[in-house]
Amino acid sequence: MQLLDGKLVSETLLADIARQVEELRSAGKKAPHLAAILVGTDPASETYVASKVKTCKQIGFQSTEIRLSADTPEEEVLEYIRSFNSNTDIDGILVQLPLPRHIDEQKVIDTIDPKKDVDGFHPVNVGKMVIGQPTFISATPNGIMLMLQHYGIDTAGKHCVVIGRSNIVGTPMSILLSRNTNPGNCTVTLAHSRTQNLKELCLQADIIVAAIGRPAFVTADMVKDGAIVIDVGINRIEDAGRKSGFRLVGDVDFDAISRKASWITPVPGGVGKMTICALMYNTLQACKARQSLTY
Ligand code: GUN
Prior knowledge:
Blueprint: E1 2-3, H1 6-26, E2 33-39, H2 43-58, E3 62-68, H3 74-86, E4 92-95, H4 105-111, H5 123-130, H6 139-150, E5 159-163, H7 170-178, E6 187-191, H8 198-203, E7 207-210, E8 228-231, E9 235-238, E10 246-249, H9 254-257, E11 263-264, H10 271-290
Parallel strand pairs: 1-11, 2-3, 2-4, 5-6, 5-7, 7-8, 8-11
Antiparallel strand pairs: 9-10
Helix pairs in contact: 1-10, 6-7, 6-10
The chain binds guanine.
Guanine binds next to strand 4 and helix 6.
């Protein structure tokens, strides 16, 4: 088994982004600026937003972080987005999901200027991604593509089973892997909660992408020898032995599956790191596009 080491790969790619920020500055251009909005106090979301803001600082991006209480009216969130849309200094806008139930998530996404939608969630950007036009691709699936590319993994003609059909991960992942690109050119099965023969499908998979959000959902008896296993799950489970009171586990049973897989991502230190990296690439791209350098 070989590790798909998201920590290592992201360090390399973030160094490349930091170098490009330096180039922008030397050319008298401004550094990328990401604005993040967090509504509520979900501990996982707080951690993700903090990591994104910290990474911005590490690589020379500017960042603005807006933290709003869980009972913030929808209109107030939309107002922040509108003000960021018209703020010429801000290149990328991110609203951390999920949002409290009284806020219409799609309305929030629709309000973000597609040119600043560095999450790639706006329908315009999703549509462009589906037909293969250059656009912002959502960070988790794009991070996985960057990781496969970095390790030179040949995916052409492989059968990939993606488990989970969310708008953020499973659905875009299935499309990216099926496209005529490298990595890509997979035969993709998109499995979900109503899939009846999941174990049989997984046993036929050369690549499994698990994005279900359930700890150790994929077990070793579902994985064929030599498969590539990509674990998108970041689940908190109680652990009295830890100072924090929890530890992070993925959607796959890492210990047992790592004895069968050819490649596997760890949790933490796998896909999560790549997600942040892909978000930073999108923000850099947004900044350059807004300064008419490249797109
Ligand atoms: N929640 C889980 N993943 C993501 C992501 O990639 N972006 C945002 N904005 N929220 C998320």
